[in-house]
Sequence to fold (254 residues):
Amino acid sequence: MPKEQQGLREEWIKLAPHWIAEARQGGDVPRRGMLDAYMLAACGDVQGMSILDSGCGEGRFCRMLAERGAGFVVGVDTCEPMIEAARELQSSKEEYILGDVEHMPFLQDESFDLGVSYLNHCDLADFEANVHEVFRVLKDGGRFIIVNIHPMRSATGLWQRQPDGAKVHVILDDYFAEGERHFKMKCVEITNFHRTLATYVRGFLKAGFILEDIIEPTVSAEMVERYPELDDELRVPNFIIYILKKPQGALASL
Ligand SMILES: C[S@@+](CC[C@H](N)C(=O)[O-])C[C@H]1O[C@@H](n2cnc3c(N)ncnc32)[C@H](O)[C@@H]1O
Fold:
């Protein structure tokens, strides 16, 4: 494993116990209160489908898809504690593989109806490698649904706040300076990668995908009443969902 990959993996190994504990309580608020509904709607009727979840973590979304009738869900993640945790709750319709989603020789060409990537592209040094791999393993007409941090929010900039802590507005800077961003999650140093919207879209098209839709998730006022932590989501685009389709009769454009 390249040194950079090993370092990124170790960050996730450190974070895993905290991450797994939170997921076992239902997941974080943006997922529970907003993103899950968008992602499930984007996936549509998954009855009987074979589905690949790239960067599946401890398997939360795989289980949701299996519970909704997916025929078979394969989750791939590079972090061993995440895969072990996923296997603890695994049903007969799920399989978890320890592996790098940028290079998945263990998966056969054209073997999946649907691919999903739930907040994983921001973690990848080479997201295009993953996009090519998912393109390869999807059947013709198969879709790849990706939710990621919105490029407006993965750039640089926190909330500007009043002295009492009230949010004034988000600062956006360094949008065109692509590359690593470092922050702490549950006291663990995590590396993310920022890229512009154009870089992502170009990467999807270069792999051969059709871009069917872009969704910028938000919430209703009622949802904010229920989950006050989601107040940001009414004001700024924190997340983005890309819906990609592998055309019929496609050849990978490698
Ligand atoms: C933000 S978490 C999301 C986990 C899961 N999709 C979810 O929504 O709960 C990102 C996951 O990507 C995994 N990951 C990061 N780089 C990876 C890579 N190159 N190959 C496979 N998994 C990777 C991490 O181990 C971590 O579990």
